[in-house]
Automatic annotation (TrEMBL), chain A:
This protein's GO CC annotations: plasma membrane
Superkingdom classification of source: Bacteria
Stored PANTHER family: INNER MEMBRANE ABC TRANSPORTER PERMEASE PROTEIN YCJP (PTHR32243:SF18), MALTOSE TRANSPORT SYSTEM PERMEASE-RELATED (PTHR32243)
Pfam families according to UniProt: BPD_transp_1 (PF00528)
Protein name as it appears in the record: ABC transporter permease
CDD domains: TM_PBP2
Keywords, ordered alphabetically: Cell membrane, Membrane, Transmembrane, Transmembrane helix, Transport
InterPro entries the record matches: BP-dep_ABC_trans_perm (IPR050901), MetI-like (IPR000515), MetI-like_sf (IPR035906)
Signal peptide range in chain numbering: none
Automatic annotation (TrEMBL), chain B:
TM region(s), chain numbering: 6-30, 117-143, 163-183, 204-227, 251-269, 310-331
Keyword check for Isomerase: no
Membrane topology: Multi-pass membrane protein
Protein name, UniProt field: ABC transporter permease
Residues annotated as domain ABC transmembrane type-1: 118-330
Originating organism: Marivita geojedonensis
Keyword list, A-Z: Cell membrane, Membrane, Transmembrane, Transmembrane helix, Transport
Length: 293, 340
């Protein structure tokens, strides 16, 4: 393939190489720097005197006797009970993903198979809902939640996140189901299946690639949410991201910044693994709308 | 698909969206035209040995009764929208009369909370979106030129800023930019100014927030463009080459037209997402220098006294803003899906 005419001139090669190196540094360096720094004391991670302290850990060895310390992690996980927030996040994500996908596959399948005009309007309205910033809905929730005494609990947050997730889930699954040949379920129905049986026995076994991709994005939406969870969960039930934000409120006391740094690293780690294992699905999900829509 | 089957299949998600998206929107609109009841004041006459004095007191019972009777509060019409914290109609009029020129007017306008938030939100949206597209394209071209074995890891690291929680991504950058952090130190050294601090300077803070925005969104544009570059028609490229097209002409006349529809897609998604900019302002603790519409709602809801009405009014104004931005998307979707 690489004919002579396709060879890039040297100058262009160099420019491209520099771009790559600069971008890689910008994208990856902050994460590694923070990971490294999370094992130091505050005086090293934030050093006015000499930035190399963060590398050598001078103050860390002076204060703790070793070049690395897990103080930040201890403080965040045990002292400030970050494990509780982690548990809450796990629960929220698990239920949000399961419920979103259950509702979404049913709806998305119907939207992909219906030839009537109202299916199109349904999708269009979902698109409008998708564009609403979630925080604008919060002031609509609060008075009702206070009135019914359901404010602050995990199930409330789960239901709200599922609903906010629906428009996106529907759109994504709808486009995946469009790619599953219609003959498949129709021949099952010719053989005497009802619509639901056809869905259950013919579509469900082949829909998993699309469901996994959509599930990943539902997970990210629930895991990364700050605006909604910060507003409708009380302190006891906070998930990880609002919990980190609440560490910041008390940063003035020494050491607490390092709690936040440790918590940030702990929250990023699962995302790191997620991208590592599901890179292909994430890429296909990000481009799904562009290529088809 | 039969009507009844369709109905039962979409019912659960329709109910979810109706209850938790549609009704809240209606409720927000209603709240925004009501204000809490004022306390009922009664005059009480106290007579003592030295004559009578009248004092005012709060009639707790009457207040409670009124509030129970009309829990929404007093109907206020567009009063909230016009007050100082929102559209500030009177203040804007006064400023217009007082100010010496358009620059002066805009400068003073930025002191009003709503216009301050709107100003930053719009600047952010319209600076970050084009830069995201530009950087995404450049990175896509660079990654596409890399050796095949390297592309996997390159894509992996490129995705990080976009997938990581916005609040956390913001914090990570903020800690590095802090005067005592590694980038902060580098900046002070570069500017040769030992007192330089991003936290203390409005201009630098705006730039930093936008740098964060581009850093966060460029991977998305990159992935879309990269996927687009994989599907460029090689036959067309070869034909162009045989006809003597230079490298630049090939890009100009074959690659860019192929990527153009993707650009509209990225631009529209980015406009929507950038308009709701919120988390970086929390991470960077930037509210003294820059506020956004979403931040204003959050601030009203989270304060000591929850100002639901004020938050609702800002929400409605934000939704109107989104609707204006979204209209091209709707038209586009209508055209591409509506006919099919």
């Amino acid at each position: 393939m690489a004919s002579k005419a396709q060879q890039r001139p040297l100058a262009l090669q160099i420019v491209l190489l520099i771009t790559l190196v600069v971008w890689m540094a910008a994208a990856a360096f902050p994460f590694f720097w923070t990971l490294w720094g999370s094992f130091k004391v505050e005086a090293d991670f934030f050093s006015l005197a000499d930035w190399t302290n963060a590398l050598t850990g001078r103050m860390t060895s002076m204060e703790t006797g070793e070049a690395f310390t897990a103080q930040g992690y201890y403080g965040a996980w045990i002292q400030e009970e970050f494990w509780r927030a982690t548990l809450n996040s796990v629960l929220v994500c698990l239920f949000v993903v399961t419920i979103s996908l259950t509702l979404g596959t049913l709806g998305g399948y119907a939207l992909a198979r219906s030839t009537y005009r109202y299916a199109f309007w349904f999708l269009l309205i979902a698109l409008i809902f998708r564009a609403m910033p979630p925080i604008t809905l919060v002031s609509g929730y609060l008075p009702v939640f206070f009135e019914w005494n359901v404010w602050g609990y995990l199930p409330t947050a789960i239901i709200v996140l599922v609903a906010i997730n629906q428009p996106f889930t529907l759109w994504m699954l709808h486009s995946f189901f469009k790619n599953i040949p219609q003959d498949l379920d129709e021949s099952a129905m010719v053989d005497g299946c009802t619509r639901f049986q056809a869905f259950r026995h013919v579509i469900i076994p082949v829909m998993w690639p699309g469901v996994i991709t959509t599930g990943l994005f539902s997970f990210l939406l629930a895991y990364n949410d700050f605006a909604v969870t910060a507003m409708i969960l009380d302190k006891q039930n906070q998930t990880m991201v609002p919990k980190i934000a609440s560490f910041l409120g008390t940063t003035q006391t020494k050491g607490n910044v390092m709690f936040a740094v440790a918590a940030v690293v702990s929250t990023t780690a699962p995302l790191f693994l997620l991208i590592m294992f599901f890179q292909r699905q994430i890429v296909s999900g990000l481009t799904a709308g562009a290529v088809k829509g | 698909m039969k009507h009844s089957a369709f109905f039962w299949f979409v019912l659960p998600s329709a109910i979810a969206m109706l209850l938790f998206i549609f009704f809240p929107i209606v409720s927000v609109v209603i709240q925004s035209v009501h204000v809490a009841h004022e306390q009922v004041i009664v005059e009480v006459e106290n007579c003592g040995p030295f004559g009578c004095t009248t004092a005012t007191a709060i009639d707790q019972e009457a207040t409670a009764a009124l509030r129970a009777e009309q829990p929404l509060g007093r109907f206020a019409g567009l009063e909230i929208y016009k007050d100082r914290n929102h559209l500030a109609v009177t203040q804007v009029g006064q400023l217009w009369d007082q100010s010496t020129g358009i620059g002066d007017f805009i400068g003073k306008l930025m002191n009003l909370p709503f216009y301050k938030a709107l100003g930053f939100t719009l600047t952010y949206t319209f600076v970050v979106t084009p830069l995201t597209i530009l950087f995404g394209f450049v990175i896509a071209v660079a990654v596409n030129s890399a050796a095949r074995v390297l592309r996997g890891p390159l894509i992996f690291f490129s995705l990080l800023p976009n997938i990581v929680t916005p609040l956390i991504g913001g914090l990570i950058l903020f800690w590095m930019v802090d005067a005592r952090g590694v980038i902060g130190t580098a900046l002070r050294w570069l500017a040769d100014d030992p007192s330089l601090s991003v936290k203390a300077d409005t201009g630098l803070m705006w730039i930093m927030l936008m740098v964060y925005g581009v850093w966060h969104s460029a991977p998305f544009a990159f992935i879309v463009y990269y996927a687009g570059l994989q599907t460029v028609n090689t036959d067309t490229l070869e034909a162009a080459r045989i006809d003597g097209a230079s490298r630049w002409q090939q890009i100009r006349h074959v690659v860019i037209p192929h990527l153009l529809p993707l650009t509209t897609f990225i631009a529209l998604i980015q406009l929507m997402d950038n308009f709701r900019v919120f988390e970086p302002i929390i991470s960077f603790n930037a509210s003294a220098h820059a506020t956004s519409l979403s931040w204003a709602i959050y601030n009203d809801l989270g304060g000591e006294t929850q100002q639901l009405t004020s938050a609702a009014a800002t929400s409605v104004l934000t939704v109107i803003g989104v609707a204006i931005l979204l209209s091209p998307v709707l038209v586009r979707t209508y055209r591409s899906y509506g006919k099919a």
